UniProtKB/TrEMBL annotation:
Function summary: Required to generate and maintain the structure of the tubular endoplasmic reticulum network and the vacuole. Induces high curvature in membranes and causes membrane tubule formation. Involved in membrane/vesicle trafficking.
Secretion signal span: none
Membrane found in the keyword field: yes
Name under which the protein is recorded: Protein YOP1
Principal location: membrane
Gene Ontology BP, a term: endoplasmic reticulum tubular network membrane organization
InterPro entries registered for this protein in UniProt: TB2_DP1_HVA22
GO MF annotations, alphabetized: membrane bending activity
Family stated for the protein in its record: Belongs to the DP1 family.
Length: 184
């Protein structure tokens, strides 16, 4: 048991260092004489409690907010990086997220009967969104890929080289817009 407490305390110290430059949390620390990590953990706990209780349908809003905000942040970071690995991971997340939203849309009447649905969905979305867990990749490989590979076949090598060659070929034949009036 002492090991878990030490790990938790180490994580709290890591949060304190991570949020050292955050002005809002510095104000929190100055006014309450509590570490910044307590504010972060407390806010996350209240957030999850509101989803769990789901008063007035707030659980749905907060759950979808988590499903958009975390991956959107990582997507913006990925767009600014030169790596393509993070792009593939995030594209996988958005495909899985879209799939789950379509399933949810068509089964909302049933899902409302599942106790704590929004809480479970929030935990699932966090699992899918965090790059540390590779949740979206796992769901894609085990569920979506076997289904979609029956209908969607890869059309050659991946990469921007293939796309740029195709675009150059189209441009050299005057097919840049698809509008016949431009080919004079």
């Amino acid at each position: 048991m002492a090991d878990y407490v030490k790990v938790f305390q180490d994580e709290l110290k890591t949060l304190d260092h991570k949020f050292a430059g955050n002005g809002l949390l510095q104000q929190f620390e100055a006014k309450t004489n509590l570490p910044k990590s307590y504010g972060v953990v407390g806010a996350a706990s209240v957030y999850l409690l509101l989803i769990f209780i789901n008063v007035g349908g707030i659980g749905e809003i907060l759950s979808n907010f988590v499903g958009f905000v975390i991956p959107t942040y990582y997507s913006l970071v990925a767009l600014k990086s030169a790596q393509t690995k993070d792009d593939s991971e995030l594209l996988t997340y958005w495909v899985v997220f879209a799939f789950l939203n379509v399933i949810e849309f068509w089964s909302k009447a049933i899902l409302y009967w599942v106790p704590f649905y929004w809480f479970i969905k929030t935990l699932l979305l966090v699992y899918l969104a965090l790059p540390q867990t590779n949740g979206a990749k796992y769901v894609y490989k085990t569920i979506l890929d076997p289904i979609t590979s029956k209908y969607i076949k890869a059309s050659g090598p991946r990469g921007t080289e293939n796309i740029s060659i195709k675009m150059d070929n189209l441009a050299s034949h005057g097919k840049t817009t698809g509008f016949a009036g431009h080919q004079q």
